[in-house]
Every structure is written in C-alpha cells, then in structure tokens.
C-alpha cells in the first residue's frame, strides 16, 4: 500500500485522538460514582425491606396491644360488676359471698397479669417504632447521599460528553486527510490490536509493541520508499516514520 508521508503522519494524529476517545469511553464506564450509586441503591433496597418488616411488626404489636387492653377492660368491668353485687348486700348466702369474693380476687389477679402483658407489648411497640424511626432516618441520609453522588456523576458525564464532542469533531477533520484505503486498514488493525492501529517508529523501536527493531528490519525500512506504508514485523501495526525514528 502507498500513501503520502504527510497522510501517514496524520495517522498518528488520528491514533492520538482515537486513544483519547477510548480513554474517555473507559472513564465513562468506570466512573467511581457508578459503583457508589449501585452500592447506595442496594442499601436503599435493604432499608425499604427493613422498614416494611419493622412497620409490619409495629402494626402487629399495635393490634396485639389493643386486644390485650380490651381483655383488661373486660376483666375490669366484670370485677366491678361483681364488686357492686358484693357491696349491694343482695348476696346473703355465705357460700355465695365466699365464691363472689374469690372470683373478684381471681379477676384482680387476671387483670394484673393482663396489665403486665399490655406493658410488655407497649415496650416492644416502642422498640419497634424506634427501629422504624432509625431506619427512616438512615433512608433519608442514604437518599441525600445518592442524590449528591448522582449529581457528581451527571457533572462528570457532561464533562466527558463535551470533551468527546470536541475530540470527535477533531477526529472527523483529521480522518479527511487520510486516504480511504489507509484509513480502512487502520480501522481494521485498531479493532484487532486493542484500539491501536498505527504507531510511531521512535529511535528504532515500535511504539505500538514497544519492541526495538533488529538491524535487518531497520535496513529494510531505510530502503523503503517514503510513500510505502510499513508494518511492524512484531505487532503488525502500521509503522509511521518520523524525524525521530532513528533511521
């Protein structure tokens, strides 16, 4: 393949721009904010589940407390009715009086036991409500942190997009200076060799594979016409001669 020396030199400019575009694309994919966003979104999902569980527990306890309080009220009402019967003097039989007094004492013990249950449920409810409040505070903090990280990500993406746009415009202009056949070969090699299709020959070494050329290869390059498109014998990338090639 033949191409004017200045067109070959433009390949290096094109390669520099493409490498910049590749670095920008890599930066876009590996922004630290992306991993942080994933972490925070995972944390928020965990908090949502924990809040649902804590609220469910709190609701269950509230219903349990209401039922226990109703039981206390029922026992208290029954004890009060029995006490009124006892105080009314309507019960005259010693046996009935003894039985009524025993029932009232039993109801008082039952009431006391149920009130203990209510207190225990109230303590558990307070703990559950405290967990809900703490989880919601954590959720708010995580949401605020996520919003801040998203803002940083968006700012970085905007910066990358602007730089990519400028670099892409420059690339388009440079690519017009490269013949189609040489440009096609360059693009093909870029796809094969990790994004690098052309490299300088610098002080006797290929800047694509960073290996020094042997004397035979250097002599072959010295003897080649200026418009001949050369390839590195080691990495097969296009090898561009410059004033610093060391020939």
TrEMBL record:
<feature type="domain" description="C4-type zinc ribbon">
    <location>
        <begin position="205"/>
        <end position="239"/>
    </location>
</feature>
<dbReference type="InterPro" id="IPR003743">
    <property type="entry name" value="Zf-RING_7"/>
</dbReference>
<dbReference type="InterPro" id="IPR056003">
    <property type="entry name" value="CT398_CC_hairpin"/>
</dbReference>
<feature type="domain" description="CT398-like coiled coil hairpin">
    <location>
        <begin position="14"/>
        <end position="193"/>
    </location>
</feature>
<protein>
    <recommendedName>
        <fullName>C4-type zinc ribbon domain-containing protein</fullName>
    </recommendedName>
</protein>
<dbReference type="Pfam" id="PF24481">
    <property type="entry name" value="CT398_CC"/>
</dbReference>
<dbReference type="InterPro" id="IPR052376">
    <property type="entry name" value="Oxidative_Scav/Glycosyltrans"/>
</dbReference>
<dbReference type="Pfam" id="PF02591">
    <property type="entry name" value="Zn_ribbon_9"/>
</dbReference>
<feature type="region of interest" description="Disordered">
    <location>
        <begin position="61"/>
        <end position="90"/>
    </location>
</feature>
<feature type="compositionally biased region" description="Basic and acidic residues">
    <location>
        <begin position="61"/>
        <end position="87"/>
    </location>
</feature>
